Amino acid sequence: MNVDDLQWQLSNLGGVLPRIVDEILERGGLAALVEAARVREDWFCAAGAVRGLCAMGEFGRAWTVVEPFAATGWQPGVRAGTEVLLRWGRVDQALELAHPQGPRENAVDAWRDYAEALVRAGRVDDAIGVLGPHLRRRRVLGALVEMTGDQECDERVLQLLAPIAAEFRRDPKQYYDDLWDVLPAQARVLERSGRADEAIRLLGADVAARRYGPQNNVEFYAELLARHGRIEKLRDLADTQRYAAVRPYVTALENLGRAGEAEAYLRDLIAAKHPGWHESTLMGLLIRQGRFDEAVKSVEHTFDDLYDENLLQATLTLLADQGLHDKALELTEGRSPEFLAENEASWLRSNRWWLMGESGRAREAIAEIEALPASEVDDRELTIAWLLAQDGRVEEAIALLRPLPGKRAATDLAELLIRQSRFTEAIAVIPDVAAQRKEKQRLWT
């Protein structure tokens, strides 16, 4: 088993896609996943097979599937193998597998995984000790907070976090990349230990002083305020930190049954032309209240915009999520000539055909596609095949997809075969990892 191939699968979603694995598992194709893990050394198939076997209490069989992956020393395989052994009750074997062996490229991840295994084994103090030397790494800080929840060791965790937080507060620019996450981490532990007031005070001072990193802490602070009913303070934050705090403020009002206040607040922001995606937030609020026509009206002035402010795509998606495909379809019509010149071929047509397929008008969509020159329709055969399947003509769709090259066509074909419970065949039509790597290399050269 080749570690480079395994890592390539994980980094590139290679092999059988996770969503295909999930569908096979949901439809009863566990045996096909087990076989694909053994024969094709497909990581996502192996992970799905392990998940399915463990759900059935078949830990011995799950270990048989994952053991070859874990034996390579590849960290995701080690992590999965450790999980199986712990659930199987083989704690000592699990800890032996999880314990990092010698220097390695992903040492921090390995020690983090080992600490999590120690917590699962009831050795929380040992786990905290293992993480101690690595706490100035952001991924480890987050792991420490996650794994010690409900372990009755918050005071010890806070003692470890306090000097790191103080270090960051003294010189945020120096520790911008690695330590910024310590501030919300400290607040989370304070909050769960019953010291929410202290968490709000500390993090509020950090936000006021703009002590945050690449992913600022304002949204976390806003949600902290919302959880503890500090609505006035949250309103003040939203007034000054609109990009990050308006949405949490609106959500908090809505959860309190004050949707009218939330709507008025958003409309005032929009009327004052304050920067931000407030139209999008207002549309979501109105849709959640079932006010679909008003939701569309609130954003329709953006639909012919040629730049980033256009909310047509977002509106189509939200309406489709509500099952309002016909209403969404209406919005694809009547667009300005300038907008159509920029967008029709690139995405508007494909969205229109998708909506038609979802609303029972697949044959009409196919006719539209076939009336256009083939060169004007991206992924023509794939789109027609999907529409054929939507129209119940699955065998015609399968026949159209079979000769098409590439992973995307193979994946679409696999989905149709899965619907017919042809699981082994579905996996077989997807190129294996070696073939996918060659295809990707050819595309890049």
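Above is the first protein from milestone M3; the second protein from the same milestone is given next.
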Amino acid sequence: MPTVQLDDRALVLVTDDDAETLLQNIITTDISSLKTGEVKPGALLAPQGKILFDFLVSRVDTGFRLDCRADVADDLVKRLTLYRLRAKAKIKKQDQALVAVSWGDDSRSSPSDSASSRNESSLLDTRFPEVDVSRHYGKTAGGSDRAEWDALRAAHGIAESGADYELGDAFPHDVLLDQTGGVGLAKGCYVGQEVVSRMQHRGTARRRVLIATGPAALPAPGTEILANGRPLGALGTVAGRTGLAIVRIDRVKDAMAAGNPITADGLELELAIPSWAKFTFPADAASAEGA
């Protein structure tokens, strides 16, 4: 079982009596459905609906743990503190946090069975419906190369900020938080909820994460993806011949329908929706051009 230490992660703890109410009212994740023994993706949005911080959230004895990028952890603490107001909640970055990830083969036990067998330091990463992935906290683990973890994310269509998109530049739908359980579409208000809800109900999400494959090693992350000279998006995480791409799916559909090659730095790509995702290419891409 490959295990990778993630040295670029930090942990923010939100604890005390009002921790659940506070988070439920400001982040995208439906905290009420979060089970012990699992981590779910989530985000804190700007009022305009774009992602300011992304993280994985899990329960601890007295509240919640937010597993986030180390370079933005202090800013996340400050932002959460601004929203705390009079809530009885303690918000702090955990000192000397250790985060690791491990995964098994390409088979996954049922989510409920897998989560129920976990403990507070080893939790099911629910973003991966097709492979059993565990998040580990509080201990040094593993010796596998970080590239193996990036390859797993690329193969399964799991994007993360920094590697695949910039904070402040993407909506939750763009990076599939609506598909991975990172957006509580049925819960009440949270920061940026009106924009996310409108995008969901009108079906106007046009930028999406797709899995890119090529006949040779893909070019570097950030390389523009084109079809007939028209920009579609850009590559994110790259692992050999496979990578992630955040692209306009209406333009991808147009290119495929017209038989125009889709390329990155001259290398022809195939772009596919992750097999577990529930969205599709637009039925009429041309009509969605202004969306």
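Note on the second protein: The domain at 206-288 is CATH 2.40.30 (Elongation Factor Tu (Ef-tu); domain 3).
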